[in-house]
C-alpha cells in the first residue's frame, strides 16, 4: 500500500516555524529585545552620565569607526590577543603531549593546573610589569596564563576520555607519538579540545581588556581598554559604552562565526555533535 493510504505523512511547516528553526534568527531576536530594553530603560532614567541610550551608543560607535580611532584600538587589542592566545595554546599542546606519554608529565600538568588555574591572570600583571616592563610582553605573559591552563585541562581530559577501542585501533596500525596523537587522540577528543579553546578565548579576551585598562593609567597606550579609559576620563559616556559594545560584538563574532564554523567542519561533520 502507498503512503497516500495512511493520510498525511508530513505536515508542512508554517512561516513562523520555518523562521523559528533558524538559530541565527532566534539569537538576533534576543539581541533586538535586549537593545529595546536598554533603550527604554535609558530613556526612562534620562541621565546620559549613568546610562546613554542604545541609539546614542550606536551613534558614538559609528563616529569612532568613521574617525578610525575605534578600529585602530580594536586591531591593537586583537593583535596582542592573537599573540598571547597562540602562545598559550602552543604551550598547552606541548604540556599535554608530554602528559599523555609519561606519568611524570601527567603529575606535573595536574599539579600545575591545580596551582595556577584558580589564580586570576590579572593578579599576575604587577609581576609581569616588573619582569617585562610596560609593553606588549607583559600583556602576552598574562594572556598565556589565562589561556594555558583552561586549554591544557580540557585537552588532557579529552585525551583521557578516548576509548580503549580507539587506542587499540591506532596501536594495530602501528601509530605512536605524534602520529598517534594526530590520527587517533585529537579527532576523538576534539569536542573537549574545542571547549577548552572557547574557554581560553573568553578568559584571554576579558583579561586583555582589564590589563589594557591598567596599562592605560601607566603607559598611555593600549587597545579597546585604553579607549574606554580615555572616554571615561573625558566623561564621554556614550564612547565608553561604544567601546564596551565593540568588545561584545567581537565576542559574538568569534563565538558564533569562527568557532561555529570550526564546529561544523569538525565535530558536526564527524557526527560527534548534533
Summarize the structure in words:
The protein is mainly α. It folds into two domains: 11-46; 60-265, MetI-like fold (Orthogonal Bundle). 78% of the residues lie in helices and 0% in strands. The protein has eleven helices and no strands. The protein has helices at 15-20, 23-45, 54-67, 69-101, 103-116, 125-132, 136-160, 164-172, 177-218, 224-233, 237-265. α4 crosses α7.
Question: Could you write a compact summary of the structure shown?
Answer:
With 274 residues, the protein is mostly helical. It is built from 11 helices and no strands.
For the sheet with most strands, the description reads: none
Give the CATH superfamily of the largest domain: MetI-like
Low-confidence region ranges: none
> What is the CA-based Rg, rounded?
24 Å
Secondary-structure element order, as H and E? HHHHHHHHHHH
Query: How many separate structural domains?
Result: 2
Distance between the termini: 34 Å
**Could you name the CATH topology of the largest domain?**
MetI-like fold
CATH top level assignment of the largest domain:
Mainly Alpha
In the CATH classification, which architecture of the largest domain applies? Orthogonal Bundle
Q: Roughly what percent helix?
A: over 70%
Average pLDDT, to the nearest integer?
Answer: 82
Number of helices: 11
How many strands? 0
How large is the share of residues in beta strands? under 5%
Classification by helices and strands: mainly alpha
Amino acid at each position: 500500500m502507498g503512503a497516500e493510504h495512511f493520510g498525511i505523512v508530513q505536515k508542512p511547516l508554517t512561516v513562523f516555524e520555518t523562521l523559528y528553526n533558524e538559530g541565527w534568527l532566534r539569537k538576533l531576536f534576543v539581541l533586538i529585545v535586549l537593545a529595546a530594553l536598554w533603550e527604554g530603560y535609558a530613556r526612562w532614567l534620562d541621565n546620559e552620565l549613568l546610562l546613554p541610550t542604545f541609539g546614542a551608543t550606536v551613534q558614538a560607535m559609528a563616529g569612532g569607526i568613521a574617525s578610525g580611532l575605534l578600529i585602530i584600538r580594536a586591531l591593537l587589542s586583537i593583535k596582542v590577543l592573537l599573540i598571547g592566545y597562540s602562545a598559550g595554546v602552543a604551550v598547552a599542546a606541548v604540556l599535554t603531549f608530554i602528559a599523555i606519554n609519561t606519568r611524570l608529565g601527567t603529575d606535573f600538568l595536574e599539579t600545575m593546573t591545580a596551582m595556577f588555574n584558580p589564580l586570576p591572570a590579572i593578579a599576575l600583571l604587577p609581576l609581569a610589569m616588573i619582569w617585562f616592563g610596560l609593553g606588549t610582553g607583559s600583556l602576552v605573559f598574562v594572556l598565556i596564563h589565562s589561556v594555558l591552563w583552561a586549554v591544557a585541562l580540557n585537552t588532557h581530559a579529552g585525551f583521557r576520555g578516548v576509548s580503549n577501542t580507539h587506542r587499540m585501533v591506532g596501536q594495530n596500525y602501528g601509530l605512536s607519538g605524534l602520529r598517534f596523537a594526530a590520527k587517533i587522540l585529537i579527532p576523538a577528543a576534539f569536542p573537549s579540545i574545542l571547549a577548552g579553546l572557547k574557554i581560553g578565548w573568553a578568559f584571554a579576551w576579558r583579561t586583555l581588556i582589564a590589563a589594557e585598562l591598567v596599562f592605560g593609567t601607566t603607559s598611555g597606550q593600549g587597545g579597546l581598554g585604553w579607549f574606554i579609559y580615555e572616554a571615561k576620563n573625558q566623561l564621554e559616556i556614550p564612547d565608553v559604552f561604544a567601546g564596551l559594545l565593540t568588545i561584545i560584538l567581537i565576542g559574538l563574532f568569534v563565538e558564533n562565526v569562527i568557532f561555529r564554523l570550526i564546529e561544523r567542519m569538525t565535530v558536526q561533520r564527524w557526527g560527534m555533535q548534533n
